[in-house]
Amino acid sequence: MTNNVPEAISTAVPYVQAPLVYKGKVRELYDLGEHFLIAVTDRISAFDYILKPAVPDKGNVLNRMSVHWFEETESIVANHLVHADVDKLGGYVTDKEVLRDRIMVTKKARRIDIECVVRGYLTGGGWRQFVKTGAVNGIELAPGTRKNARLPQPIFTPAAKNDVGHDEDISFEEMQRQVGAELAGKLRDVSLRLYEYAHGRLKERGIILADCKFEFGLLDGELILIDELFTPDSSRFWAEENYALDIEIDSMDKEPVRTYLANSDWDKESEPGPLPDAVVAETTKRYREIYRRITGVTR
Question: At 37, is the pLDDT very low, low, confident or very high (cuts 50, 70, 90)?
Fold first, then answer.
């Protein structure tokens, strides 16, 4: 790891000699035959738009953070990671240095089309639901619970995955109908265990894990964790020193981008213009800082 900022990449296609099978907002999935190759780009999205330019070092940070957590939680649940060593990819890559730190070779699992969300604090979409209904995904909370309050126990609030548009919040009962009671129970229990583990580990580092989401798959009938894990793109991190009730807490992620767009004259109905250099640089700094605080390693 160094303090040099590498050039941002918006796609890994020029550097991978394998079929591209899926392109998400940030990740690209390539078929290596027995395994998949996941390349994490530096693309950044907000308000359902992929923005320009890409943010240097973002993909490297996200990928290394996922690798860190996959290795740390494998005693809780198996995961899809085979290795993250670009030097083992041989002729599949044309520029190892460009892809170093931003790839994972993974097992091929069948994705379960449920996003497994755990909330330990009442904020974000959970808070908006509570204000309207007094409940989150059908789970009733104590009247008068305040914004950002820590919940007595973390709650499991799943969503049905939708590759087009937003995922749909569903009750646990609906999840049982969709995937079966046994699998739904396993997904809930493992998700809660993962949250509790990471919440404790992060607290040691002065970070609050407010909520997070997981994706799982099935491999030979066994449940495994896939995609990413406890990154700023899949989790809401708060610096403990910024925690307070009844306010908007500045989360440790792409908040500089959201703040810039919210305060600009962008109409939110057309593709936004390029991000200013200062906003891009601050966002890179944010991602590097959360990586340092979590892993103790400086990029």
Answer: very high
DSSP assignment letter at 52 = S
Kindly report the backbone phi and psi dihedral angles of residue 97, in degrees, each rounded to the nearest multiple of 5, phi listed first. -70, -35
Token duo for residue 13: 């296609």
Two tokens, residue 238: 């708060």
**SS3 for 26?**
coil
Mean pLDDT computed over 36-53 = 95
Rounded-to-integer distance, Cα 26 and Cα 43, Å = 5
- Condensed to tens digits (0 to 9), the pLDDT of residues 134-156 reads 999 999 999 999 999 999 999 99
Q: How far apart are CA 47 and CA 166, in angstroms?
A: 11
Could you give the CA distance from residue 9 to residue 21 in angstroms, rounded to a whole number? Answer: 19
Token pair, residue 66, equals 């996922």
The number of C-alpha atoms within 13 Å of 83 and in the hemisphere containing its C-beta is 6
In contact, 195 and 212? CB cutoff 8 Å: yes
Residue 215 β-bridge partners: 226
Q: What is the mean pLDDT of residues 224-233?
A: 97
Rounded distance, CA 218 to CA 223, Å? 5
Residue 93: DSSP 8-state: B
Mean pLDDT across the chain, nearest whole number? 95
Sign of CA dihedral 202, 156, 252, 97: positive
Tokens 């330019």 sit on residue: 53
Query: DSSP string covering 101-151, please?
Result: TSEEEE---EE-SEEEEEEEE--HHHHHHHHHHSEETTEE--TTPPTTPEE
| pLDDT one-digit tens code per residue, 277-296 | 999 999 999 999 999 999 98
